[in-house]
Here is the input.
Amino acid sequence: MPSKAYIASAGFTKVGDRWADSLLDLAVEAATSALRRTPKVKPQQIFVGNMFSAFGAAQEHLGALLASALGMSGIPAVKVESACASGASAFNVAYSLVRSGALDSAMVVGVEKMRDLEPEEVSQALALAESAEYTQFVGATFAALNGLVARHYMERYDVSRDELSAIPVMDHANAVTADHAQFRKAITPDVVSRSSMVADPLRLYDCAPVGDGAAALLLVNDRAAAGASPGGMAEVLGGQIATDEFSVYEREDMLDFRATREAFKKAMAQAGLSARKLGFVEVHDAFSVVGALSLESMGFSKRGEGAKDANEGKYGMESELPINTFGGLKARGHPVGATGVYQLAEAYIQLTGEAGKNQVEDADFCATQNIGGVDTTSAVHVLGRAG
Here is the structure.
């Protein structure tokens, strides 16, 4: 019979320019922070979420590398890759094994070192999430694909520039009081609309920044939970991954985030919850349009109204359903392979009452959504207060 699975601890670095630190330094910092909170629990396996360490840091074999650095050589340790959804995908593998009883405990570390690369190199690295034979071959960048989606979204649903800017503006407002966020400065819609063009109609402030960071989580089941503090745990109630046609231009409707819709529906069913029970959601807003389409695909907004709803305050910190409570990808930062683990770590500290000035009051349940590609892969997890 399946056991329950819990996040027993979390650790993460501040996202930003970590010039003096290597990929391994970041991973060790986050992992050590998580392990320090639960000294009686040792992970039986390590899972590392990462997208492009070979391209950006000339390093692979991250599982064994991290295990050795932590003094844990001998235990199984592997890397999981699923583009920008690598972090949540690694978590999903660990969660499945811990919940099944195959493991009593596991550590998940998401890590990415992006700032050592030049901007054009970052663009090349992100393009690895798309087809090498087609999309990469013709030189279409990841930003360009999302720009096509954004233009189609604005024209089909009559979305204004200020409405498209609403989620980035909200993210920056939430990040002001988030110590680990990359950009802790509030912005206005005018700042977004006047920022430099990246891929029409997307401007610089529509796009998540480039940054370095790592986040770590310790997962336990019922057998290992005795070594952790009951008040310091969050239960993982459900977790699902879904995929769509590989490239966005292959789909019947590129504004339908089918992978997110399916993963969310299945994760909520697994958790046995109605979406109305969720107290907040951490949304994958790598681009402003992606945040809006994600909210629509999970059913929180009607088709074409995600950006408009955000502009009207539906998802602010004082609303019934706050999103991106520490700034989301846009302001907390988006070290791609680590992002899904950051989202889950932020959900954990919300549910354990450790979110400080960013605390969402009376939230018993939440969901996180982490995307790879243009909703090519989506990993959704549902968490609840332990006990």
About this structure: Residues 5-117+211-234 form a domain with the Peroxisomal Thiolase; Chain A, domain 1 fold (CATH 3.40.47.10). The longest strand covers residues 234-243.
